[in-house]
Write a structure and sequence with these properties.
Luciferase, domain 3; GMP Synthetase, Chain A, domain 3; 4-stranded mixed beta sheet; 5 helices
């Protein structure tokens, strides 16, 4: 079994492995169109040992994590994932400005925040544009979403940053309840508080019938931010 396009949530991975007891793991392929779909691969044998990793670089690519000055970062530090190789695009069609923003010195900047461990495995932290800063602290929505997915009464969730007069930004969670659930906002916030640092818990919760998603299954967070 193979998962593609993005990091597979650990809760989803556990459910898949339970539902299909005959498989020995899940290949997780991380990539993007600008790099011909494949950047890193987590082999099935590592799917539990390195559960939240997207694996190691494909054989034809160089991959690294860089800071805002494009300097490579050591293992453990979070920065932007960049890759270089023969499968990386030459540029965006008739859009030199976007090309200059994405490709520098031959390195494609993916827009994804990541870290690498001491064994050379990469971990996607979140989309760079989705990270929020609340009271000077970086908060990655994906981390909060991982917690929400473990709640037994939540079937889907997405987290975004919203403007806050005091802290600059605050966490807002959009939640889809399972049928028959009477889960309220206070209970969701308290559940997150028990599993996350207090500043990471949602300040507000909005319940939806469905989370708007793209054809590839990614939450359309711009639409969620536009909800007032």
């Amino acid at each position: 079994m193979t998962s593609g396009a993005d990091k597979l949530l650990m809760e989803t991975k556990r459910k898949i492995l339970s539902f299909f007891p005959g498989i020995r793991g899940i290949y997780n392929v991380y990539g993007l169109t600008e790099a011909t779909a494949t950047v890193t691969i987590l082999k099935a044998k590592d799917s539990l040992r390195k559960g939240d990793s997207v694996g190691k670089p494909a054989p034809f690519l160089q991959v690294r994590v860089v800071d805002d000055q494009d300097r490579p970062l050591p293992p453990g530090q979070v920065g932007e994932l960049a890759c270089k190789g023969p499968v990386v695009m030459q540029g965006y069609f008739r859009n030199p400005e976007a090309t200059r923003g994405a490709i520098r010195d031959g390195w494609l900047h993916t827009g994804d925040l990541a870290r690498m461990d001491e064994e050379g495995y990469f971990y996607i932290v979140d989309r760079k544009k989705d990270m929020l800063v609340s009271g000077g602290e970086n908060i990655y929505p994906r981390e909060v979403e991982e917690v929400l997915y473990t709640h037994p009464e939540i079937s889907d969730a997405a987290v975004v940053g919203m403007p806050d007069a005091t802290w600059g930004e605050c966490v807002k969670a959009f939640v889809v309840r399972k049928p028959g659930s009477r889960l309220d906002a206070e209970a969701v916030i308290e559940y997150c508080r028990t599993k996350l640092a207090s500043y990471k818990k949602p300040k507000t919760v909005e319940f939806l019938d469905v989370i708007p998603r793209s054809a590839s299954g990614k939450a359309l967070k711009n639409q969620l931010r536009d909800r007032k």
